Structures are given as structure tokens and as C-alpha cells.
Amino acid sequence: MLQYYFLLGVRNLRRNPALTALMVLILAVGVAASVSTLTILHMMSGNPIPHKSERLLVPMVDNAPTEGYTAGDERNDDQLSYRDAANFLASKLGDRRTAIFGVGGTVEPARKDMNVFNVGGLANTHDFFTMFEVPFLHGQPWSEKEDAANADVVVLSRQLAEKLYGEANPVGQRLMLLGFPYQIVGVADTWNPVPRYHRLVGGSGAFGEADEFFIPVASAIRHEASFNGSMNCSKGRDPGFQALLDSECTWIQFWFEMHDAGGRADLQNYLDAYAAEQRKLGRLQRAAPNTVYNVMEWLEQQKVVGNDSRVSVWLAFGFLLLCLVNTIGLLLAKFSVRAAEVGVRRALGASRREIFHQFLIESAVVGLAGGVLGLLLSLGALTLIGQSSDQLKVVAHMDWSMLLTTFAMAVGAAILAGLLPTWRACLVTPALQLKSQ
């Protein structure tokens, strides 16, 4: 019977094509506006690494001066000094650890047809690639021994490798990078998580472009690589790279990977003990609380999803509600002219429940048609939004969950809009309709 009502609903769409087209269009526009904004919010606020986000932790200690500080003031810096990062690396706490900071400079291609050009990348430890599950196209990450030996090794992004070497495997070759010869040990496959949770501070931001290369922290320090990112020197510092390393300037991000979610308490205890020890040495005099963030807490703390994005979603759903009100009016008009049909069906023995099912399924057919058109409009809107900026291009695309949401929202909205008209249709009195014929 449901199949019959569905086919009947499809045929009834052709009874009044202008009215049907108007209902489908209104519903599609409302769904498209809602789904487009909801898709962007979904991509921006999703968990980029759900299976281990509770085990990836950011440690924070406050090394700012005490001048002007009042207990309870919020920390306004989200990076670490080199001294603290080096101590955390030496702690051997957790399964893996990595310091991260941006570096930039030039590449001198071996090809005669290419000129020197600028690139930007990251300095990190070998644990970085396993922690954040970076896929590899060729080769592999450098080893712990190469980290300890300050080796000049590099992992290229797929984009940079193809620019320099085409489709060939460049592993084992040497590349003049940042003014020094680096040996290529691997090529990372396309990898740019959304959002870029591993490096939210500085760099290209939460939705920026992927890094072009990766080199060891020790190598970047030894070569005094040009820093590429944000830096806070609240106490000031003397000129020179060594002075930067010895200063309290904060410019390095840090991540721990713990064995399980329970390792968070171990890290918190370590930070508290570390801060107490550093205070004895004359540092960390603010005695501010030491904090630990997992991935989702870090995204929230960095305000990756702003209030304006949430407000946009609410406004879009308000527009959808307005579209529903108009759809209800059109369905009332569509069903009211079929009162005679309902009267005849009731006189022939159809129950109010059967009438209700028929008209509600017909509303769902309208919603399905609106969902197809709404999906096309949503894809078009997302394409236009993505073309407006490089950052929006990263989040302005639809996944399978949002694809299904589009149809569910359209059909659900149509059924909701059809409840009142359907209920009114069920109240038709068969005798009155038969007398009027």
C-alpha cells in the first residue's frame, strides 16, 4: 500500500505543475541555505582524528613575567619557549613527543629550467608523522637516531616533490633547501587535516594550505633556519639566534601522545612537578595553573569555530522555517481542491488513517523532489563559497553524512509541513461532498 501511495503521489505532482514546482523550489531553497551553512560548520567543528583525539595532548605552562599579573588572569599565549620545549622532549613522557615550529626559505632546484623559489614548512621530530598519521607516497620518516644526530634530512610534500621531480621517486637525492644540502628520505602523500589542529597558532591557520616540507627540529636549530610563524617576547630579548633560544620568548608548539586517555593525569602531574622545579630555578614565577588540552579542547580553546558561524546556521534554519510556513500554505491550497476526491474515497470505505497516509506520503514525495533540487543548489552554493577564498575552499565541500542529511532534512521538512494540510483533508465529510457533486 505504501508503494501504491508513493506512485500515486508521484502522479499527483503533475496535477498542478505550477503549484508543485513552486513548493519544490521554496523547499529546495530553504534546504540549500541550511545545508550549506551547516556543512561548513560541520567541517569546521568536526573531530579531525576521532580515534585518538583523547590521547593527543597539548601542554601549557605560563612563563610570562609577573609584572601586571593578577592571579586568575587568563593566559594570552599558546606556545612554549625553546627551553620548555627542549625539556619536554627530553622527558621521555608518553609514547611520542614532538615540538613544532614553522620554517621558511628557498629551494634551489637541480633542474636548469627552474629558478630558485620560496617554500614554507615545519620543523618537528620523527614522532610527528606517526602521531598525526601522515601518509607516505615514497620512503618513510627519518629515525630517532637521525633526530639525535642533527641529520640534514627532509620529507617533502607530494605537491613539492611533483613540482621538483615530476612522478619520479626522489628518495635518496639531495636538495639544496634553506641554503644547505638535505637528503630526501620520504615524500608525504596529500595530507592537510581539517582543521589543521596540529598547528593552529601561527602559520596558515586552521584552514590554510598544507606544509611543503618537514625537517628535524635539531637541524633547523643548528642551521638557524628562518622562523615562520608567531612569536611572543613579553620580556624582550637580545639580538641573535642563541639569544632567542635562551630567552623566554614563546614560539614553539608541543604535543604529547599518551598510551591511553588515562595518561592525561600523568602529564598533568608531570607539568605541575616541572613548574615547581623551574620556580626554584627562578622561572615560571607567575605560579599560574598548568593546563592540558586534548584535540577537541584545543580547537575550542583556539576558537576555531567562531560565534558568527553558529549564528549563520541559526539564521539559515530560520529561513528554512519561513520556507516551511509558505509550503504549508501551498499544501493547504493543493489539498483543499481535492476535497471531492477525499469524499468519494471515504464513501467507498477508505478510513481517515488511509487518507492521512496517502496525503502525508504525497508530501514526502514533494520533499524528495525538493531534496534533489536542494542538493544541487547546495553543491552550487558550496562551490561559489569555496571560490571566494582559499581557506573556505578547504571546508566548503560535502561528505556522505551531509549528503544524507540533505535528503533527510528535505523529506522531514515536507512531512512536517504536510501535517496540518493532511489533517485538514482527513476532516472532510463524505456526505457533504457527495451532495455537492
UniProtKB/TrEMBL annotation:
Keywords: Cell membrane, Membrane, Transmembrane, Transmembrane helix. It is found in: Cell membrane. Signal peptide: none annotated. One of its GO terms (molecular function) is transmembrane transporter activity. It is a multi-pass membrane protein. Residues 20-224 form the MacB-like periplasmic core domain. The chain crosses the membrane at residues 21-44, 311-335, 355-380, 400-420. Residues 315-426 form the ABC3 transporter permease C-terminal domain. It holds the Pfam family FtsX. InterPro entries: ABC3_permease_C, MacB_PCD, Macrolide_Exporter_MacB. GO terms for cellular component: plasma membrane. This is Putative ABC transport system permease protein.
